[in-house]
Amino acid sequence: MKKIFHALIFVLFSVSAFSQPDTLSITLENVQYPYPVKFLNLTVEGQDFRMAYMDIIPAQSNGKSVVLFHGKNFGGYYWTDVIKALSVKGYRVIVPDQVGFGKSSKPFIHYSFQQLAKWNKQLLDTLGITKANILGHSMGGMLATRFALMYPEKVEKLFLEDPIGLEDYREFVPYVTTEEQYKTELKTTPESVKKYYQSSYFPQWKPDYDYLVKIGAGVAKSADFPRYAKVSAMTFTMIYEQPVVYEFKDLRVPVVLFIGKEDRTIVGKALLSKEQQSQHGQYQMLGKETAKKIPACKLIEFDGVGHIPHIQTPEQFIVSLLQNL
């Protein structure tokens, strides 16, 4: 199944000829998503822009919905097999690309999890969805937590897949300004992207994961990449300055926490020494500590799995997800 799935992924995410063979636009127009993409028109700070999303209606509905929030370095494209599995079981699946990511616009605005949560509520309201299961991965876990804190009445159950923000990065990661982070983002290369993914996301690299690097680094060759890099720096600052770790105790919805025990993700990892890196981002411990903070939390751990269980072990992850839905 894995080989078939990843073969399909390589077809889905093959890019058309642009200015260079591997060059992507910063809104991924030349990346084919697995399902039709629609747009929600938004206005903030005097700017008009669009929020991209997929809305997958099952052939036979069970009357329930699942919303998938992607991580910082990704977009809705990496949820393909999760969408398919949920749809087969009758779930309506909503997959937004958050503003500043994926196929959505890249405006220069003040980015906050509160604002992102508000736009996602607006999306659900527009689609007529009164209540949904929310699954957030990585940065999407921080956003999903904020969404559940702001709109508990909209959340049937909260699923967090290796969320970042289980630590307060401000306590041990040196502060860098958005402008300094922007200069770092401008240095993005396929090699730097792959090196980070290898050190944090996957315990053992496989060629199957190369498409993630192809998309993550492909935008760096775009003439518009400086805008993309600036927005990426802005959202880095958002993550750093807006922790949710102190509010897990305030969640009032059922929570399932999925943890890959080999995850070693730290936001700002490159700013730390090797010794400091070994003291943080230890998800085999962070998962247990976090589960204790959250009322009505169920912890599910995956041995030998890193930051993205739904990519590394899709069958195992999907079975656990469906069992808990």
TrEMBL record:
Leader sequence residues: 1-19
GO molecular function, one term: hydrolase activity
Keywords for this protein: Hydrolase, Signal
Keyword Hydrolase listed: yes
Protein name: Alpha/beta fold hydrolase
Record domain AB hydrolase-1: where: 65-176
UniProt xrefs under Gene3D superfamilies: alpha/beta hydrolase
GO CC, one annotated term: membrane
